[in-house]
């Protein structure tokens, strides 16, 4: 969203970036200072360059100390019911301050409220999809999955699906978690169905630390908050990292692991044992870390942003997906593009397997093979973003379409 905002501002648009107060507070807390008082460092720099970007926050309806992970169902129920009215207030206030302007709203595709608000205020509604096109097509054709008995999937074993437009043959095991097991997290199904009905930050000390390490010697480890709250998984990862004997940077957010922070989930004395071999930080500039020559692999939960950034910088991946689009993203990385490996083949992660897979990616013949393959994919990604590349052409076409829609609204 930040990158899109600055890109649009560079094309002459005025941008108001709206962040929830909770996320605003969480990032500030992770950095131990008032990071966002300057409206994001990147926005400050953008404004210095003459770009018109504003920043504001909005309440999600809960106090800052409310546990949104533990009370996920209540949180999303309230977001569905009450959050649109709060957005409506922000939109109305923004439009009042800029009476002569024509407006558009950009929100994640899985948000269910933008279309209604856009219609109310005669705005152009832009839906931003942040996962692979494969995941979009699967979601868009849930009716086909229902017709063929694959949503919810009630069969035994593994089936292969080859009837979804734009999607190659895919196993039911590689479908998004909320399709495979909709009853485990029903709110995820609700978010997806509602969404498709509508059809940076301060630097930690990792950079300097990375400069002191040999090329390709450091593993970058970063999972989402759900994974970090799994104490057994975190303990196995910790022991596996120790056994692998590689250097590593590990992102662990203290605010999601308990009152005592990382001490609640790491083995006793872990930080003393790793000394200069490993670095644990609450946050880092992921692009900057992945761009370091010291990074040789990325242990990831397979979020789409992480995958794209890893490909961009040519870093092979060790994949351990959790939910939503992550299982499908893993399939693309490991099975289709062959630029990563699975962390484990079974249901449970063991420290022995963690150490083994780390060494596969960081050393030896398989490591060299993965680096060769990801170099090919990375070159394609770079080409698409170059002058005249497909990404640049598509973005310019989007800007032209957006301007045309805005002109229609003014008539």
From TrEMBL:
Coiled coil start-end: none
Keyword match Chloroplast: no
Transferase recorded as keyword: yes
UniProt cross-references to Gene3D superfamilies, sorted A to Z: Glycogen Phosphorylase B (3.40.50.2000)
Entry EC number(s): 2.4.1.-
InterPro entries attached to this UniProt entry: UDP_glucos_trans (IPR002213), UDP_glycos_trans_CS (IPR035595)
Matches recorded under Pfam families: UDPGT
Enzyme class: transferase
Keywords assigned by UniProt, alphabetized: Glycosyltransferase, Transferase
Protein family membership: Belongs to the UDP-glycosyltransferase family.
Protein's recorded name: Glycosyltransferase
Annotated source species: Rehmannia glutinosa
């Amino acid at each position: 969203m930040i990158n899109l905002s600055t890109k649009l501002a560079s094309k002459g648009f005025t941008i108001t970036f709206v962040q929830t107060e909770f996320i605003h507070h969480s990032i500030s807390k992770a950095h131990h200072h008032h990071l966002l008082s300057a409206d994001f460092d990147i926005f400050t720099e953008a404004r210095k360059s003459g770009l018109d970007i504003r920043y504001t926050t909005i309440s999600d309806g809960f106090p800052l100390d409310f546990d949104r992970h533990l009370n996920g169902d209540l949180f999303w129920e309230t977001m569905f019911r009450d959050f649109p009215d709060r957005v409506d207030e922000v939109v109305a206030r923004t439009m009042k301050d800029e009476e002569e302007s024509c407006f558009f709203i950009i929100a994640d595709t899985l948000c269910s409220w933008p279309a209604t608000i856009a219609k109310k205020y005669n705005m152009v509604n832009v839906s931003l999809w942040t996962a692979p096109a494969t995941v979009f097509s699967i979601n868009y054709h849930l009716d086909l999955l229902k017709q063929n008995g694959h949503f919810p999937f009630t069969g035994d074993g593994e089936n292969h699906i080859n009837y979804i437009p734009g999607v190659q043959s895919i196993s039911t095991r590689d479908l998004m978690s909320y399709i495979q097991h909709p009853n485990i997290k029903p709110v995820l199904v609700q978010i997806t169905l509602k969404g498709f009905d509508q059809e940076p930050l301060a630097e930690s000390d990792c950079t300097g630390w990375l400069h002191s390490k040999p090329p390709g010697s450091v593993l970058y480890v970063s999972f989402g908050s759900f994974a970090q709250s799994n104490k057994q998984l975190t303990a196995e990862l910790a022991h596996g990292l120790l056994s692998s004997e590689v250097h590593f940077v590990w992102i662990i957010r203290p605010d999601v692991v308990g009152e005592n922070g990382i001490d609640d989930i790491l083995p006793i004395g872990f930080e003393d044992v790793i000394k200069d071999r490993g670095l644990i930080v609450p946050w880092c500039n992921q692009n900057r870390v992945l761009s370091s020559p010291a990074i040789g692999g990325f242990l990831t939960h397979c979020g789409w942003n992480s995958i794209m950034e890893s490909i961009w910088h040519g870093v092979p991946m060790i994949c351990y997906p959790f939910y939503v689009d992550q299982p499908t993203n893993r399939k693309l990385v490991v099975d289709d593009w062959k630029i990563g490996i699975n962390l484990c083949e079974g249901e449970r992660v063991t420290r022995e397997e963690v150490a083994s897979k780390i060494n596969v990616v960081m050393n030896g013949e398989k490591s060299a093979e993965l680096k060769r393959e990801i170099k090919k994919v990375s070159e394609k990604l770079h080409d698409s973003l170059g002058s005249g590349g497909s990404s640049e052409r598509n973005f310019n076409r989007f800007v032209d379409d957006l301007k045309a829609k805005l002109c229609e609204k003014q008539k």
